[in-house]
Amino acid sequence: MGHKPRKEMIAETRAKLVAAARHAFGSVGYAEASMDDFTASAGLTRGALYHHFGDKKGLLQAVIAEIDAEMLARLKIVSARADTLWQGFVDECTAYIEMALEPEIQRIVLRDGPAVLGDPSQWPSQNECIRSMSENLQKLRDEGTIVAVDPEAAARVVSGASLHAAQWIANSDDPEATSKKAVKAFNLLLEGLLKQGRRIGRPQAPAEMDKSPA
Amino acid sequence: MGHKPRKEMIAETRAKLVAAARHAFGSVGYAEASMDDFTASAGLTRGALYHHFGDKKGLLQAVIAEIDAEMLARLKIVSARADTLWQGFVDECTAYIEMALEPEIQRIVLRDGPAVLGDPSQWPSQNECIRSMSENLQKLRDEGTIVAVDPEAAARVVSGASLHAAQWIANSDDPEATSKKAVKAFNLLLEGLLKQGRRIGRPQAPAEMDKSPA
DNA sequence: AGTTTGACATACGCTCCGTATGTCATTATT
DNA sequence: AATAATGACATACGGAGCGTATGTCAAACT
Prior knowledge:
Chains A, B: Residues 34-53 bind DNA. The structure is a homodimer. Chain A is mainly alpha-helical. The first copy, chain A, contains nine helices and no strands. Chains A and B meet through helix 6, helix 8 and helix 9 of A and helix 6, helix 8 and helix 9 of B.
């Protein structure tokens, strides 16, 4: 039985390192994660890490890139199966909030990432989720659903809002109740983007997710 | 010539440590700031630091509390001199964005703080700015200007939006242009909170800051 | 005056990171 | 096919930084 080809072994090593780091970063945080420890847990040493990723930051970048790609894929699925563009956009935002509730994403991508690598808007992965959101907003603008606004600008403030909503929910004593309040407030903000008259009347009671404008 | 009373000397020492740490954290970041270095720059040693603040995190907390207090004071001034509650709220948000552009605030409070101390919503200083914003929103709701929404929820998503707007602006190649786009998008979101009909008609051209509803 | 308290400095050990070097298998060369 | 060269890792070493344990000295107390 032949050994696996070289390329595969290398890819496997990289994958093992990324997986081990992802677990360590996600559970104890970047600063507390010992390189000796988590490389050992992958059956390797720091030698491999420095060889493949240059340094600890480089590995964090790789981990974030991986998570970011997964997030993007999930978001695409969500927005693709909506009936209208607006509904897809709203659904995508909601999904974004839900993803930001996951501890791994919150810790690695949303907290340690910016602290270690600087502002996400400068990342090479360019926060793919923002791009996706921008594209949707661009279409909504062309379609005439939302007012004239810079798509990227809107995408950034919206993602900021959803991100904080998620963090608030995640750290809340009663995530269920908090989630309802946060999502409602968030949806109100989103409606600020809609053109005059497209906004539907809202009952005072906790409303269902708004149906998209025809 | 008498030496200063004991209490004053101690307070002075604490202040010197906080000031030195604030400068170090703000310029090179929390992780890169050497305790030996910045305590020495204050004419002290780590002994004083551990005595007064327990550890490096404790000092970061003190620094953030100080900055937070300053931010709150500035925001109160801004909102106090507005003609209407809504205008005050909008002004306060704008001021929040502008403050978030300051490197020291951005780095210490918005990036390193959450990474080291966890989610700001759990901080003892409780993010005083959020509280202030919540109070304003509560009044706006009582007044009937905005729709029924949980004030804290709205405050959190709004601060998240403004924060990301600020980071985007701060790291932009052309802060002037980016600022215009970001603030416009942000103001649109804010209008989502207004009651039906209170929303003013918006021209397509980059609008001035909206005048408050009567 | 003697005792106690507490504000700070000094000293020590430990962990962790980055680099420099070594080793062995795979690939390229002739 | 034999040798050279590359590259994927492991090992070894040095340095920095942090936390703690201990020491010192002045101020407050009795």
